[in-house]
Amino acid sequence: MRFNEKELVFLSRQPSERAAELGMKGPKKGDVMKRRLVKLIVNFLFYFRTDEEEPIGALLLEQCRVEREDDLNFSIVFLDEAERKYVFECDSKEQCLEWIEAIIKASYEFMRKNLVFYRSEIQRLTGKVRIDPLEQYGISDETRFQASSGLPPLPPPPT
After folding, report:
1. PH domain spans which residues (predicted)?
2. How, if at all, do strands 73-78 and 64-68 pair?
């Protein structure tokens, strides 16, 4: 997927949901763990050299899987390119778990599933069937609007 470089640089300068210096290893054979400033902004994970202001790359966090490798490491694997695996090294177990949770929640697919779940819960509890104004923006629980990942659906959020 191609993106406008100027727009990505602009987005990378916006306030982040999460930011830290992490170890990062890219998907190429022979890549080594390097210290990078990593910023989670909306559904992009930007990474920077620690002494530079412009990102050297960005990962769109859609159609990917986040996995815990061990206490300090997690990885991001893209579903359509299983060999494209990025590994991140955190400073603590807690930091690792926080990053995993934040990245999972950053995808639009996760947000859409939450919207659909809570909308159906409201309907179940109130008995009211309403036409949802969000559908005019293409947010729908119809299968034709869902991205297929080949993975089982996420469990509903806790109540």
Report:
1. 15-108
2. antiparallel
